[in-house]
Write a structure and sequence with these properties.
137 residues; Nucleoside Triphosphate Pyrophosphohydrolase; four-stranded mixed sheet; three-stranded antiparallel sheet; 3 helices; 7 strands
Length: 137
């Protein structure tokens, strides 16, 4: 139904873990989810009444078993997928505790120049912006 596309966007907290050498962590969407097999930055939906940064910390603990110690808000992107209208809130974290683990059965990979495919459509332009941030600083 057309009204569904016009519904308020779903807020999603997205984290970019960045190592000192500029490598970033990408995860692969698991089977059973829209765009299964596509690569994206980890994160998830913000629950009602939840602060975006709190959602980010919760999602990283649930999905990867790591604690985000600090992160800076980076950018916001809206994207309309066939299944959902999302407002993505991106954070860059250079400080976390623990090593990422696949707690939801998803594959993940540290990437310098990003070589995994296919990338989730909303992720593609961010890779270019991120490369400027990582390699021109």
């Amino acid at each position: 139904m057309a009204d569904e596309v016009l519904a308020a966007p779903i807020d999603v907290a997205v984290g970019i873990l960045m190592k000192p050498n500029g490598d970033v962590l990408l995860g692969q969407r698991p089977e059973g989810k829209p765009y299964a097999g596509y690569w994206e930055f980890p994160g998830g939906k913000v629950e009602a009444g939840e602060a975006i940064f709190d959602a980010l910390k919760r999602e990283f603990m649930e999905e990867l078993g790591i604690e985000i110690l600090s992160a800076e808000a980076w950018c916001g992107v809206q994207h309309v997928y066939p299944h959902a209208h999302v407002r993505l809130h991106f954070y860059i974290s250079r400080a976390w505790s623990g090593e990422p683990q696949s707690l939801e059965g998803q594959a993940f990979a540290w990437q310098g120049s990003v070589g995994v495919e296919p990338l989730l459509p909303a992720t593609i332009p961010l890779i270019e912006w991120l490369d400027r941030l990582r390699y021109e600083a």
